[in-house]
Amino acid sequence: MLDLTGKNALVTGIANNRSIAWGIAQQLHKAGANLGVTYLPDEKGRFEKKVAELVEPLQPTLFLPCDVQNEAQIQATFEAIREKWGRLDCLIHCLAFASKESLSGDFSSVSRQDFTQAIEISAYSLISLSRAAKPLMTEGGSIVTLTYLGGVRVIPNYNTMGIAKAALEMNVRYLASELGPQQVRVNGISAGPIRTLASSAVGGILDMIHHVETVAPLRRTVTQGEVGNTAAFLCSDLASGITGQILYVDAGYEIMGM
């Protein structure tokens, strides 16, 4: 049986109860992991309150603000982990953002600012969080990120996010190579389309979901819980020989040609 008892896991990217990160956090908790959760701070504290209420049943022992565009907050987050836990075993990266303007229209029309912002938040953040986590993963560990098919194929209304996911997937491979000698594994999960706060910004998301339900071998899309199960597996010793990989959790849609 999958057992994460005694493992310290940090989960980023929970926004609400539809977040894939929420599904992952639930499965990690169910497997016995000790959870830490970050939230995106804002002036009115809306995210803090919403996320705190949502994760309360999981009893996280760390609940921290972390804006990945703020290096000082990243350092403060991992310093708090060092002081509270002493080490980190699992890092879950569920962070992505692109402006609505950069998700539709002519791809060549994307602004330099929107392109840079999407890459920084969606791809570079994995590098910055892994750099901060590296000294704390003293007994090996697992880093898991979320990607999507749009990083390897053209998906309507995905545009700049597709470039960000392509960069993210190469980050997985380079980080896996760097951190492997430390017995830290780095993998990505390419999830099928799920209706979340983030995906709602992608035009035609419901049509995409219905298409997957029609075409995928399992004739359905996947749930946050199924993605969470895969993340828990990748964080466990059952996946001790897996690193640098992108695992598709999409009801088999990725294999289909038409």
TrEMBL record:
CDD domains, alphabetized: ENR_SDR (cd05372)
GO biological process, one term: fatty acid biosynthetic process
Keyword Electron transport among record annotations: no
GO molecular function: enoyl-[acyl-carrier-protein] reductase (NADH) activity
Known catalytic reactions: a 2,3-saturated acyl-[ACP] + NAD(+) = a (2E)-enoyl-[ACP] + NADH + H(+)
EC class (word): oxidoreductase
Keyword entries, A-Z: Fatty acid biosynthesis, Fatty acid metabolism, Lipid biosynthesis, Lipid metabolism, NAD, Oxidoreductase
Pathway the protein takes part in: Lipid metabolism; fatty acid biosynthesis
KW NAD (keyword) present: yes
EC id: 1.3.1.9
Entry's family note: Belongs to the short-chain dehydrogenases/reductases (SDR) family. FabI subfamily.
The protein's name: Enoyl-[acyl-carrier-protein] reductase [NADH]
